[in-house]
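request received
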Amino acid sequence: MPAAKIMSLADLAALIPDGASLAIGGSFLHRGPFAFVRELIRQGRRNLEIIKQSPGYDIDILCRAGCVAKARAGIVAMEGNFGLAPWYRRAVEKKQIVLEEHACMTLTAGLRAAAFGVPFQPVGGVHGSDLAALNKWASIKDPYGSGEDVWVIPPIRPDFAVIHANEVNELGDARIYGTFNWDRIMTRAARKVLVVGEKLESVAAFQERPELTLVPGFMVHGVAVVPHGAWPGSCWPLYEVDYPAVEAYMDTRGSLEAHMAQAPEIAESAHA
Amino acid sequence: MPEAWSGFSYIVVNLARFIRPGEVTFSGVNSTPPMLACLLAKRAYDFDFVYINVAGGVQPTPTTIPISSSDPALSQGSTSIFANEDFYDLCTRGGMDLCFLGAAQIDGLGRTNVSAIGDWHNPKVRLPGGGGAAVMLPTARRAVTWRTEHSRRTLVEKLDFITAAGGMHGVVTPIAVFVKRDGRLALQSWHPESSLEEVRSRTGFDFDASGAHATPQPTVREVAALRSLDPEGRFERDAGVSLR
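response:
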């Protein structure tokens, strides 16, 4: 049996150095590794590059805490009924962070290029969009003679992909229930993969149904088990978005510390 | 006597009226009105269509209607998970018949800006960003959008930034329904409590209005379906749509 990969949330987050690029799993308020994100804040990480098609709470709270230098993102919002991500918005408008704006699928094309081991990846659409010139993307003519032009995106290779999974085992295998959003391609594109799991399952249970595993353990560098770790977001089918908690987070009269103090991983580590 | 429109019901029902039998129809993130429109069409219309959504749902039958249009609850009842890469690839290879997409600004060609108000590099307002539009708008067979505000700052002569080209097939606002004709948005109908003059005065781009008429009132089934999806009026309150 290979060595177990389970570690504490603090040790898992400590693997990320200042300045690292980080793909974050989930989408908006759903199944993001938010306990991990908060742990990066507690550890005072700086100058991170955040890579995600649809970040929201994660990039917003990281901007609020001053941890971010650059964002490569498709669509950024709190979503639900909360609208724009306020601290992210302010960070971009005040030029505190550099934004590389993508369409979700151009970011994915960059991740695919990295995952496939090729220098660029064609992507459908994009024709007529100012995003192409903004990002200096190239288009090439079909070398097989259809006469069509296609936009090609250079590789996006995150230093880390961090995802939140429903079930993990000690070998690092991870299962996700419901949609896995962009997590699959993120884990294939990144140099290292870190997983936060809701629940530790036996290796035998994974052996019974290997087709349910989204990320094989040999690709995973470390795992932490944090029940309720996607709070204040949802983790299908276990829990829904904690709307009052997100509302309190958005209230500018409240402090970041007060929000962080309510996080479930605090209680977990207290009796760990 | 037919039920009168509210600004909110006008948007949701008129989005639903773009849905056609047998087609593959998609609703995405940050898209409560299209989510409700797709679910409404399932309840109010007799034809079938393939409803897929950003939560991976394929023909879902959710038991509760989530506040977030990307909530995994929208895959309840689905027999498969059709995740993000799948529905984008379906769209770019020509398999998406109707795609609902958000927009902040829309021009007369049906192009959209969801990136920034003002100069992109010095934005007055940093908006959510590219999202699905730049890839889906040019590749979906038809794309339809909505605005809860009908004004010269949302329906503009010139976009601050062209996030997505390709052109919307349809646009629904609290007072008007536009449909693309000869490459430009043309007025199809207006809210019966509004008028062609009002639509013209509140729209930043020129449009053809030949054949336009007052929008037919919602049917009994459309009203009942929307009420069943929003029995306490929570979505209507959150949307905060007014005619003027």
